[in-house]
Amino acid sequence: MTRMSDLDENMVAEILCRVPMTCLKTVRSVCKTWNTLSKKGVIVAKEKQFLGFMMMNSRVCSLRYDLQGVRNEDNVVEPPSIKQISTLDQIEVSKIYHCDGLVLCVIKDDLTRVLVWNPYLGQTRWIQFQPKHDFHRLDRYALGYDKNSRNHKILRFVDDDYLHDVKHILRYEIYDFSLDSWRVLDVTSDWDIAFYQRGVSVKGNTYFFATEKLIFDEEEVGPQDIDTSGTEDFLLCFDFTAERFGPRLPLPFHSYFEETLTLSCVKEEQLSILYQRYEPYEMDIWVSTNIDPNAVSWSMFLKLDMTPLTGFRFDFMAASFFIDEENKVAVVFDLDRFRPDLTCRYQTAYIIGQDGYFNSVNIGEAPNLANGKVGYTWPMFCIPLVCSSSYVPSLVQIA
């Protein structure tokens, strides 16, 4: 009788291509051969489709999207395969981050801890915050690693201005996986990172959009009275090896407040930027040709006027995306077009390409987060968030 371990390697690889990434822990336990080939199986599958993770309806979900032939003449676009992660179905999340095959989950309505998950090994690790330290729902996070030791770390920073403190002070803390402890970092900044800006990890470091810090006399003028049109925009890298922010890195454009500006990574080796102007709704996507904590250079990937296609601008606080270099398209996740008379909206994947190519696909009804809650005067719909589209298995032990 033929045993599982007797199957031809090519046949095993083909089987593994079809296995959901969240079931790999079971696959690896079949035999030593399957354990070895399971990582190869995920990589082979990646050649055919985009694999990653996203947050949808406050849940962690897997994402599979086969974009082969997306620009065929029939113009029919299949929806992505999005499935809730069963091992994490007991938690709701408000933010997710990805780096080096690990996923960091910020738990909704729980400001005392975060969860780190290794999908390939099926391991999870709860990380408690330091007691007596203030925390806030607008805290920002980043996941990265020390290049010398490959030790993973979490950066967390708190803007005390959101805590209604008198002074505008940032506190930075870093968690070391090997030491299982938090430390406060000594960081002095002359820049601000908006609470809605999500950092993206590339080569173990995390990059953020930042702006010049505005200083004003509260007795003479308020922040709403300051002209921000000349405020400098730039990129900042947090180097997890040196545990410090690098110098200001240039962007290939100048953006203004409330224009759509969001980051993505390309195979964890390059950084990609989506920039959509306030009006007209022109959209640019740039990809880094060289990047490290101290320098960056850019190349234009896509430029398109969205006005005749959608007539709206992607959400400047929530839109997320990834690019497919082979098919020369970008996939942006947001809601359908807003209308005041709508009581129901839909989460949507927009496929945008060169030469004016545009298509969209409905991926599900968007829950109304307000839903009669005190303090909400209008609907606030849940927007999907992609944190990774280039998943590679990780053997990092976190349990």
TrEMBL record:
Superkingdom field: Eukaryota
A Pfam family assignment: F-box
Domain F-box: 7-47
InterPro entries, A to Z: A_thaliana_F-box, F-box-assoc_dom_typ1, F-box-assoc_interact_dom, F-box-like_dom_sf, F-box_dom
NCBIfam families assigned: F_box_assoc_1
Protein's name in the database: F-box protein At1g10895-like
Gene: LOC104759161
